[in-house]
């Protein structure tokens, strides 16, 4: 028991353990002008999927029957299966996805690249390339089989 008290005393002495009460809360210090002024600077944007973005049920080329997803947390080998017993084969882990893919949607994106300032880590970079005025730029969302048209303005 004495050894435990001794170890606790050592830890408290070096500030590695609070002395009880609210001593465990670290005091917030004022930066005192040490941080740069980041007003008007493009920061890092979180790339979160837009609300409502969802890949549709797919139709293989020449087939009008929709496929339904069969992918579960316990079974990643099945991707899409036909929803009719007489429909052709779906897509699974054995599909040669470089030569066989579902028809997707046509999606267009307009991107404008400009020079500007950014501070994703808190330090200003003055010669950054911004996409649509932001860094790292907008999230480009697409599903398997989609055709993308990206208009790039420099």
TrEMBL record:
Keywords (A to Z) from UniProt: Signal
GO molecular function terms listed in the Swiss-Prot or TrEMBL record: copper ion binding
Stretches assigned to the Plastocyanin-like domain: 113-152
Signal listed as a keyword: yes
Coiled coil: none
Entries under InterPro entries matching the protein: Cu-oxidase-like_N, Cupredoxin
Pfam families: Cu-oxidase_3 (PF07732)
Presence of keyword Signal: yes
Residue spans crossing the bilayer: none
Record's signal peptide: 1-18
Family the entry assigns: Belongs to the multicopper oxidase family.
Protein name (database record): (Perigord truffle) hypothetical protein
Organism field: Tuber melanosporum (strain Mel28) (Perigord black truffle)
């Amino acid at each position: 028991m004495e050894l435990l008290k001794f170890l606790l005393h050592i830890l408290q002495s070096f500030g590695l353990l609070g002395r009880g009460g609210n001593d465990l809360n670290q005091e917030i210090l004022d930066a005192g002008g040490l941080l740069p002024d980041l007003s008007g600077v493009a920061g890092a944007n979180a790339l979160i999927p837009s609300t409502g973005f969802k890949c549709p049920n797919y139709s293989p080329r020449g087939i009008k029957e929709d496929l339904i997803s069969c992918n579960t947390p316990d079974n990643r080998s099945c991707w899409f299966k036909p929803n009719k017993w007489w429909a052709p084969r779906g897509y699974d882990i054995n599909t040669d996805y470089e030569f066989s893919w579902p028809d997707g949607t046509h999606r267009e994106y307009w991107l404008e690249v400009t020079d500007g300032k950014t501070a994703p880590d808190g330090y200003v970079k003055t010669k950054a390339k911004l996409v649509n005025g932001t860094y790292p730029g907008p999230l480009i969302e697409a599903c398997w089989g989609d055709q993308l048209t990206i208009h790039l303005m420099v």
